[in-house]
């Protein structure tokens, strides 16, 4: 009888560890450097996305989105949810802009959809709150929807 209880206790503690070990490979496929192009009505602009696991928070990922003007939108703290095997939603808890020291964002979503081993689709939605840089200039991160990026082979 004691052996059966001991077995259940070991199983209870081992089950979450087993699940955590097997969840990471899904997230590893999105880590790394991704490159693509943003197109407006006239021009094509290069963009870059760096994704890495946070060194400070075990369950968080860091993002650095670099646009064609070398301005960076960075997410330093997020919560991740895997909606399906190919779709990840990261809820922003802490983010900022490189050119606006006072801009600190606490809401929004980064959505990554895996199209294949070398291609992802990026959406950055509802980042906020907006900040007033001066009495008539408002700063924020505009929404990006469906930007296709290719894995950088460095």
What does this structure look like?
By secondary structure, the protein is an alpha+beta fold. Helix content is 18%, strand content 58%. It has 1 helix and 11 strands, in the order H-E-E-E-E-E-E-E-E-E-E-E. Strand 4 (72-84) and strand 5 form a beta hairpin. The chain starts with a helix and ends with a strand.
Q: Tell me what portion of residues adopts beta-strand conformation.
A: over 45%
Distance between the termini: 57 Å
Most strands sheet: 8 strands, antiparallel, barrel
Strand tally:
11
Brief summary:
This protein is α+β, with helices and mostly antiparallel strands and 154 residues long. Helix content is 18%, strand content 58%. Strand 3 and strand 4 form a beta hairpin.
